[in-house]
Amino acid sequence: MGRFSSFDISASGISAQRTRMDVIANNIANADTTRTADGGPYRRQRISFRSVYDQTLGNHAPAGVQVAGISQDTTDYRMVYDPAHPDADTAGYVKMPNVNVVEEMVDMISATRAYEANVTAMNATKSMIAAGIEIGKG
């Protein structure tokens, strides 16, 4: 592990959570989008992470996290009865995106808290380094 690996770990967590918040915001923004460029309703996006390990000198210590990928959630669309909607089928039902705004907001709170935790860890590391420098001066 390098001298500033705790900064790297926190920075990777901050970056991953920022990407997670972007994906969640995109889901919320498209919660009512019934027509996309692909022709159908918007599909909720999901993000996945993977651990990163330090491979130097045979060391397998944790070294952070990174986004493994962003994929589409394949759960069924919501069917809403709205015969006046331009995208309604012959029975009057509209395929709505598979986005649950309440669930997305809970995920957003979780991502925000994880982001804040990484910022706090980075600030604590910075304070410890500064204290160590002060001790070294004395």
Rounded to an integer, what's the Rg over CA atoms?
Answer: 22 Å
The oligomeric state of the chains shown is single chain
The termini sit apart by 27 Å
Helical region count? 2
Q: How many domains, in number, for the residues?
A: 1
Mean pLDDT: 91
Enumerate the spans where pLDDT stays under 50 for 5 or more consecutive residues.
Answer: none
Strand content: 15-25%
List the helices and strands in order: HEEEEH
Helix content: 40-55%
Instruction: State the secondary-structure class.
Output: alpha+beta
Number of strands: 4
User: What is the strand arrangement across the widest sheet?
Assistant: 1-2
Biggest beta sheet attributes: 2 strands, antiparallel
Indicate the overall shape. elongated
Task: Give me a quick take on this structure.
The protein is 45% helix and 20% strand. The chain has two helices and four strands.
Outline the structure in words.
The chain is an alpha+beta fold and 138 residues long. It has one domain. It is built from two helices and four strands; from the N terminus they run αββββα. It has helices at 5-29, 101-137; strands at residues 45-53, 62-72, 78-81, 93-96. The strands form two sheets. A two-stranded antiparallel sheet has the order 1-2. A two-stranded antiparallel ribbon has the order 3-4. A hairpin with an 8-residue loop joins β1 (45-53) and β2 (62-72). α1 runs antiparallel to α2 (101-137). The radius of gyration is 22 Å and the shape is elongated. The two termini are 27 Å apart.
